[in-house]
Input
Amino acid sequence: MTDRGRKRGGGRAARQASLNTPETQSVPYITRKVPVYEVLDEEGLALIEANAETILQEVGVEFRGDAEALELWKDAGADINGERVRIPKGLCKKLIQQSAPAEFTQHARNPARSVRIGGKNMVLAPAYGSPFVRDLEKGRRYATIDDFRNFVKLAYSTPFLHHSGGTICEPVDLPVNKRHLDMVYTHMRYSDKPFMGSVTAPERAQDTVDMAKVLFGEEFVRDNTVITSLINANSPLVWDATMIGALKVYARNNQACVVSPFCIAGAMSPVTVAGTAAQLYAEALSGMAFAQLVRPGAPVIFGTFSSSMSMQSGAPTFGTPEPQLVLYIVAALARRLGVPFRSGGGLNSAKIPDAQAAYEAANTLQHAMLAGVNFMLHTAGWLEGGLSMSYEKFIMDIDQAGMIHSFLAGVDLSENGQALDAIREVGPGKHFLGCEHTQNNFKTAFFRSSVADNNSFEQWEADGELDSAQRANIIWKKMLNEYEMPAMDPALDEALLAFIRQRKESFPDASY
Amino acid sequence: MTDRGRKRGGGRAARQASLNTPETQSVPYITRKVPVYEVLDEEGLALIEANAETILQEVGVEFRGDAEALELWKDAGADINGERVRIPKGLCKKLIQQSAPAEFTQHARNPARSVRIGGKNMVLAPAYGSPFVRDLEKGRRYATIDDFRNFVKLAYSTPFLHHSGGTICEPVDLPVNKRHLDMVYTHMRYSDKPFMGSVTAPERAQDTVDMAKVLFGEEFVRDNTVITSLINANSPLVWDATMIGALKVYARNNQACVVSPFCIAGAMSPVTVAGTAAQLYAEALSGMAFAQLVRPGAPVIFGTFSSSMSMQSGAPTFGTPEPQLVLYIVAALARRLGVPFRSGGGLNSAKIPDAQAAYEAANTLQHAMLAGVNFMLHTAGWLEGGLSMSYEKFIMDIDQAGMIHSFLAGVDLSENGQALDAIREVGPGKHFLGCEHTQNNFKTAFFRSSVADNNSFEQWEADGELDSAQRANIIWKKMLNEYEMPAMDPALDEALLAFIRQRKESFPDASY
Output
C-alpha cells in the first residue's frame, strides 16, 4: 500500500499484505494519456451553454449578505435588484476567459509533491466533510481530531492520493471556532502533500492563509498558490455570505477556489439531466466570474457535485446513470470554458462498505476518470452520502485510485508493448509465463490490487474467509502502524504552533 | 424488479422490495443514444490490425483434429503445415467482410423478445458456465438443474436482461452427455427470451438445432437465426476439435457463433495490452473467417474475454485497468471490421458478493457499456472468476444492468429536458420538489435501484442493518415466488419432451 519500504510486522495477515504491496512508482499527479469521453456533441453543449446564459440574465443569481459583492457586480455591468444579480449574457464567460488560468500549480511544502491542476492532469484527494467515522471494530461514531489525523496519515502514506484534502472528517471534539487551526496544522505537519483551507468563516480562511505564510513564507504565498478551498453554492442560484466571504479571502490572496454547485437534482435543480447541467453551469459561471471581479487572475476550479434523488424519500442517491451524464456534460463545458474541473469521487449512500458502496463508488470513479476530472475530491473513504468516513472504504477506494493511474497511463505501443516477438517465440498452444518478454515486464505489467483476494476458493477459505472490508481493516492498521511523519524544521513547527496558540487565546472560552 | 405486477407477499421486507420496484419499460434490447469511447486513434488501431495480420501469416493458427477445416483453409489459399494454418495477410478480413452480416436478428419464440445483435444495439445476457452456485443460506455447492431452472426464471423475470443465456450454471446432477437437452429445454420452456446452444460436442450442437426446429419449425430455422453459441479459442492461437465441430454445425445451419478468444493475459497472451489485443484479434479473425468458409454469410459475433493475471499466483484478476484497455481496443477493431462485438459482464474474482465483487464487476460493466459491446455475456451472477453463480450477485448485477439502460438512453434535450421554465418558476433559493415540471417527470426521472438502501442511517438501523447481499437475498426469493411460466402450446411442449426422451434413450446407460 505504501511504497516507502518499512520493516514488516509479523503474522499471516501482515505477510499477505506485504505480498500484495504494489511496486507502484509514486507520481505527484496523473497526466492522462487517453482521450476524454463526451456524451453530447457541439450542438448539445452549445444548447446547455446558451441556457445557462439565459438563466444568468433572466433569472439571475443571489449574492446574499455581502454589499461589496453587489457593488462589484454592479460595476461590472450586472443588473442588481436587492440581492438578485442578473448578469448579461456572455459577461461571466468573458470575465473568466480574460483572466482565470486554464491550469495552475498548487505548491506543496515538499516541492516534489506540488500538483498541476487543469489540462490533462488529474489530482486525487480524499473525501471531505463527514461528521462521522466508521470502522469495523468501533462502528459508527462522531469523528475526532484523532480520526482526522489518522486519515491525513493514511492519505500521506498512499502513493495513489496526491493531495491531503481538507476537512477529511469533522473533528467534533474540538470547538467549532478553533478546530480549523488544528485541521490545517495537521495537514501541514503530518503530511507534505498539498492541502485545502478552511471556508466556514472568512476569518478562518484568513487564518489558513496566515498559517500558509508561516509555512511557505509571506513572499512565496503572495506569488504562488498553496491552498485550494471548497466554495459551495446553495443551489439553486444562491451564494451565501459565508461562502462569498471565504472566496474573497482566498481570491484576494491568489489562492484557489473550487467553485462548486452542490446539487441534489430533483430538489435543488430540475429533475432532468439537461436542466441540471444548465443550472450548474450558470451557478459555476457566476461564482468563478465573481472571483475574477475580486482579483483578476485568481485561480478557480469549476466544481460540480451532482447526485440524483430518490423520488420516494427525497434522499440523495449516488452511482446512478443521471449524475454520470451530468458529469460528462459539465466536464466538457469546463474544457470549452478553459478552466480546471472538479468532480467525482467514491460517492455512495451505503451505510457500510458493502457491495452497494462499491458499485456506487466505482460507477462514479470510473466515469470521473473518463470525463477528464482534474481535481477529484472524495476519492477515498466516502460512505453514507458523505455523512461518514470509513476507514475500510478508504483503503478500498485508494486501491481504485491506483487503478485510475494505470488506466490513464494508456496503451504502450512501443515494440515492447506490441510483443510480436513474444507471440512468435511462444506460438500456438504454449504459454507465455516463462518467456523472456513476460519476465522482462513482470513487475510493471498489471495493476496489483492490495485489497482484492484473487486466490482460489480453497485458499480463501483457509485464510479465514475474509471479506473485502476485513482485508481492508488489516491494511489501514498496518499503514498507520508504519506511518512515519515527514520531517519539518522544529523552528517552523514551533512558529506554526505559536500562531495557533495566539489565535486560540484570542477567542473567549464561551465561544466553544 | 419485475414489471409484471403480481400480487405481493407480506412482511416488511416484501413491502420494502415492493416499494423499490422500478417502473421500467421493458425493451427487447438497448439501442444506444450516446457515443462509444475509444482509447486508441486511427494510427494505433491500424498498428494492432497490422500486427494481427502478421501473426496470422507468420505464426499461424492451429486448427486441431479436423481434417475438413484444414481442407477448407487450403482451398481458401492458406499455407497448411500439419495442423498449423498460416493465413495470408488480408484473407480473413476479406472473407469476413464479403459475407458476415454487420448485424442480425436472433429470434425468440416470443417475437416481442427477439433481439438485434450489432450496430448501436446492446443485448444483455446472464453469466455462463459456472459449476458452482452460491447463496446466503446454503453457501457454495455444486449447481443442479434446479439452480439452472431458477436462474432461467430470474433472467426471464427481470426487464434488464434481454437474453436467457446458455449454460447459466452447469447442472452437474445430470449426466454430461444428456444435460444439454435439459438445459436447452429449460430455456425454451421456462423463458421466451432468446437463448444459447450447447457447444460441448458437435452432436450436442446438432441436438440444439434439432430442438430449435421443433420449437420454431424447420423452415423458420433454415431462414432465420434462433440460436447463439459460444465458441472459445484455446489461446494462444488454437482452435480445438470440439469447438471447430460445434462451430461447423451452427454455421452450416445459419445459426450464430460468438467467436471468442478466452484469454488470461500473461499466461495465454503477452503480458502487455497491445500484444494481447493483436493476438485476440488474430484469433477472432481466424475463427470468424473459418465460419465464412463453412457457410458464407453465417452470423458471427467477435467475442473477447480478457483478464489480467496475478503475477504472484498466476490467478486471473478482473476489474483491473489493463483488460479494460484491451476491451476498448478490440471493440473498436470489431467496428472497423464490421461485425457485432461481445465482451464485458460483471466479472470479478471475489468469493462472496462483497465490495470486491462489486468494484470489479462495476469496473467491467461500465467500460463494456461505453466500449459499445453488442452482446454482453456474464452480465449477472458471476462470482469467483466464473466458478460460481451467485443468487445475490445476480440481483445486484441486474440492478446495474438497469442503470446501463438509463445511461445509454442518453440526454433528453427536448424543451421538457432542458427545464428552463422550471428554473424560471422556482428561482434562487427555492426547491424543485413541488414544481409542475418535477411532478410531470416524477416517474421516469431517475433510475431507481432495487437493491440500494438510500435511507437515513437511523432508518437503515431500524430496518435491521441489512447489507446489500441480504437485501438481494430477499429480492431473488420474491422474484422466484412470483415467477409465472410463459405459455406454450401443450402439443409443442410434448414434441420437445418426446425429442428429448428419444435422444436420451439412444445413449447407453454407461455413458453417464
Observations:
- Chain A has a mean pLDDT of 93.
